[in-house]
Fold ABC transporter ATP-binding protein.
Amino acid sequence: MSRKIGDVILDLQNISLRFGGVNALTDISFDVREHEVRAIIGPNGAGKSSMLNVINGVYHPQDGKIMYRGKERKKMEPHMAASTGIARTFQNIALFKGMSVLDNIMTGRNLKIKSNLLLQALWLGPAQKEEIEHRKKVEEIIDFLEIQHIRKTPVGRLPYGLQKRVDLGRALAMEPQILLLDEPMAGMNVEEKQDMCRFILDVNDQFGTTIVLIEHDMGVVMDISDRVVVLDYGKKIGDGVPDEVRASPEVIKAYLGAGH
Ligand SMILES: Nc1ncnc2c1ncn2[C@@H]1O[C@H](COP(=O)(O)OP(=O)(O)OP(=O)(O)O)[C@@H](O)[C@H]1O
């Protein structure tokens, strides 16, 4: 592999998360290295989405520490995660269905818009310059994702696979350091999955973005991930490179037990 994996960028230490009597996550520790593709896998209800929501600042764990770029991260809201360089896509696509592809991707730039609303409304000076720069970035993403032909199409009219690609574009518009992908291949046919895999690896390679993903398709996970962490009933039962995880008796047992 030609890519260079860097230092630890995100370090989750002894994370526990409870919802009333449900232990969604129990004492989970793992790290994510810069420029890595890191997968979180596990049977249904294992705690994968909860883990992503902890990273994203949606859920606040009762115990544990989150170190981000070497500093302990305090309690924060999701929009703060985005402004510190963490973006995400969602299992159930969260796009504006009536808006065009271009406008949806543009919404990802909102965090970066600096000039005030009055200037923007009047389309004056710095606002105009800024708008042009944002458009340029969005056009680059559209080219990168090979969706020029649908740039003006309302998202709701697109097939599911393309909607997922637009959702990825919206997240990329934030220029994240860490991109969280929640089941990016769910509901896709084989061809759409191959396209999505290629785009994920290209994002990782060309933009240097660190990727953390949840995915149920084992073939895909083992193909594109550098390291895989395995959860089961909220506990960590495996962590390592794909070959290690695939060979782990505990992981095999969890998956067989879950009927996967
Ligand atoms: N907001 C919530 N309130 C109460 N319980 C929750 C909440 N979110 C998750 N849980 C519970 O936490 C546990 C882990 O759920 P989570 O969605 O993180 O698992 P998952 O591995 O992502 O599952 P799936 O693969 O089915 O999406 C489950 O028992 C779930 O019911």
User: Anything to note?
Assistant: The longest strand covers residues 8-19.
